[in-house]
Specification:
Rossmann fold, UDP_G4E, seven-stranded parallel beta sheet, three-stranded mixed beta sheet, 35% helix, binds uridine-5'-diphosphate, isomerase, alpha/beta, NAD(P)-bd_dom_sf, NAD, 10 helices, carbohydrate metabolism
Length: 341
């Protein structure tokens, strides 16, 4: 099969590309490399260095083949940043997605898997796992932009028959267990890589944003899902699209507080993470945990790396081998174009 992956040079996208190539599919990637990395693109996958907001550049790529499906991940995706410049986030994510979705409808694409988010559910305090019928109240401009795109996809199906799966990820974490890809954001804002670097004394003590939430230890709770399990979920959902469009919550169903994550790092590495309490971060909901029952029932997906310690182990292994992420000398591509271990 032949698939197009937008954002395929990014963190989650690169793991999806690996999963698709491992399954024997042909892959092309669209990525403007604003946050993605050329080095993670395997030579077996063709990279189009194109910004989705550039409709004229996008159309010939979508029109070049009869794609069996499109995976749409390219987006601005940092909650805190979206609260500093919400209109920029909305403009960027909506324009790029509208261009892509319009192009898909014009060129007969039948299936699209969309990278949606648990940030749709950021509004009120929650103390239970979140099901698909929970009220959608985005707590950030980032979450709102993803919700708008889900609605665009609804109409693309109603009017043009473009079937879509909106996968609402919770917190993607960890790295390819074979060491071929990992997490490298610049600037890094995510808890696990920052905590690992603090533990490794590569940066100052970690700030924990908010220790006065109404949670058992006062810190926010998240559902950390291994990035390779998220990648596998994208392939699992394709068959469902033969029947209908869908939206699923995708997570392990287990919540870990920020302090739980630090304890896991201490267990796995044998070293404590230095940290101190800081102000709450705008747009952060206290608790986001997925009820992924529907997804598991409909697709048979279950996470292979469900334990937080497994997630930390793979993240630590990649971080240790690539201290400067894809920028370091060790991160050269091999002949197959895939990151060396
Ligand atoms: N967090 C933190 N310190 C940091 C980075 C993150 O306390 O330096 C917290 C953040 O406030 C949230 C959790 O870690 O409660 C997960 O944040 P992350 O940015 O990793 O993912 P998000 O849930 O925003 O998608």
């Amino acid at each position: 099969m032949r698939y197009l992956v937008t954002g395929g040079a990014g963190y989650i996208g690169s793991h999806i590309v690996l999963a698709l190539l491992d399954a024997g599919h042909e892959i092309e990637i669209i990525d403007n490399l604003s946050t993605g990395h050329r080095k993670v693109v395997p030579s077996a996958a063709r990279l189009h260095e194109v910004d989705l907001r550039d409709g004229a550049a996008l159309a010939p790529i979508v029109g070049a083949h009869r794609w069996d499906g499109v995976f749409h991940l390219a987006a601005l995706s940092i909650v805190g940043e979206s609260m500093r410049d919400p209109l920029h986030y909305l403009e960027h994510n909506l324009t790029s997605s509208l261009n892509l979705i319009r192009s898909c409808t014009q060129h007969g694409v039948r299936k699209l898997v969309f990278s949606s988010t648990a940030a749709l559910f950021g509004g009120p305090d929650r103390h239970d796992a979140i099901t698909e019928d929970a009220a959608i109240i985005p707590g950030s401009a980032y979450g709102e932009s993803k919700f708008f795109i889900e609605r665009i996809l609804y109409w693309a199906d109603q009017v043009h028959g473009l079937r879509s799966a909106c996968l609402r990820y919770f917190n993607a974490a960890g790295a390819d267990p074979d060491g071929r890809a990992g997490e490298d954001h610049k600037p890094e804002t995510h808890l696990i890589p920052l905590a690992l670097d603090a533990m490794l004394h590569r940066r100052p003590a970690l700030q924990i944003f908010g220790t006065d939430y109404e949670t058992p230890d006062g810190t926010c709770i998240r559902d950390y899902t291994h990035v390779s399990d998220i990648a596998a979920a994208h392939i699992c959902v394709l068959d469902v699209l033969d029947q209908r469009s869908v939206a699923y919550n995708l997570g392990t169903g287990t919540g870990h507080s920020n302090l739980d994550v630090l304890k896991s790092i201490a267990r796995v590495s044998g070293r404590d993470v230095p940290w101190h309490a800081a102000e709450r971060r705008a747009g952060d909901p206290p608790m986001l945990v997925a009820d992924a029952t529907s997804f598991t029932r409909d697709t048979g997906w279950t996470p292979r790396y469900a334990a937080i310690d497994q997630i930390i182990e793979t993240a630590l292994a990649w971080r240790t081998r690539h201290p400067d992420g894809y920028g370091d000398a060790a991160s050269q591509v091999d002949v197959a174009g895939v990151m060396r271990r």
